[in-house]
Design a protein that fits this description.
This protein is an alpha/beta fold. It is 40% helix and 16% strand. The structure holds guanine.
């Protein structure tokens, strides 16, 4: 078994981006500027957004963090989205999910200008992606594609089984893997809570992607010998031995599954850092596409 080291791969990508930012700067162009909207006090969201801002600093992007408490109205949030859509100094922005229950996430996603939607969540980007047209690709699925590519794991002709059909991971992952494109061309099964024979499906997988948010759900008896296992889970479990008071748990029972598989992503240090690298790649792309920076 070999670990798919997302931390190391993401660091390589960040160094490549940093070089590009340096050359943008030295040719007198505007450097990429990412804005992030964070609503409320969700511990996970705060950690992720802070990591995104820190990554921007590392690669030399400008970044703006906009925080609201969870009493903000939908209208106020939408008005901030419109403001960022119109602000020429911002290349791309994200609204960290989840949002408080009184705010309609779909409405907020739809309000984002697709050309600034560096999360790749807007239907225009999802539609373009599914047609194989240039688009901002959703950060987590695209980060997984990049990780496979950099470890020379070619999904072509393989059976990829995805557990979880969320609109930000499972569903776009199924589209990316099955596209008629080099580095994709997989046969995909998208499994979910109504899948009847989940264990049998998983046992057929050459590449198995767990994205359901249930700690240690995927056990060794669900994994074929030699499979590639990708763990998207990031549940927080109480752990008094940690300074933070919690530990991060993946969807995969790592110790037992790692004995059987060929490659596996650890949690933390697997998919998470790749999500951030993808977001930076999208922001750089948005900057290069923006009319005033051509
Ligand atoms: N919440 C969990 N993952 C993501 C992500 O990739 N982007 C945003 N905006 N929110 C998230």
């Amino acid at each position: 078994m070999q670990k798919l080291d997302g931390r190391k791969t993401s660091a390589e990508i960040k160094d490549e981006i940093r070089e590009e930012v340096n050359s943008l700067r030295s040719s007198g162009k505007r450097v990429p500027h990412l804005a992030a909207i964070l609503v409320g006090e969700d511990g996970g969201s705060i950690t992720y957004v802070n990591a995104k801002v820190k990554a921007c600093d590392y690669v030399g992007f400008d970044s703006t963090l906009i925080k609201f408490n969870d009493e903000i109205s939908e209208e106020e949030l939408l008005s901030k989205v419109h403001e960022l859509n119109e602000d020429p100094s911002i290349d791309g922005f994200i609204v960290q999910l989840p949002l408080p229950k009184h705010i309609d996430e779909k409405k907020v996603t739809l309000a984002i200008n697709p050309s600034k939607d560096v999360d790749g969540f807007h239907p225009e980007n999802i539609g373009r992606m599914s047609l194989g047209l240039p688009a901002f690709l959703p950060a987590t699925p695209n980060g997984i594609m990049e990780l496979l590519k950099r470890y020379q794991i070619d999904p072509e002709g393989k059976h990829c089984v995805i557990i979880g059909r969320s609109s930000i991971v499972g569903t776009p992952m199924s589209l990316l893997l099955s596209r008629n494109k080099k580095g994709a061309n997989a046969t995909v099964s998208l499994c979910h809570s109504r899948t009847k024979n989940l264990k049998e499906m998983c046992l057929q997988a050459d590449i198995l992607i767990a994205a359901i948010g249930k700690p240690y759900f995927l056990k060794a008896d669900m994994v074929k010998e030699g499979a590639v296992v990708i763990d998207v889970g990031t549940s927080r479990l109480p752990d008094s031995s940690k300074k933070s008071g919690y530990k991060l748990a993946g969807d995969v029972a790592f110790d037992e599954v790692s004995e059987k598989c060929s490659f596996i992503t650890p949690v933390p240090g697997g998919v998470g850092p790749m999500t951030i690298a993808s977001l930076l790649q999208n922001t750089l792309l948005a900057n290069k596409r923006s009319a005033d920076n051509a």
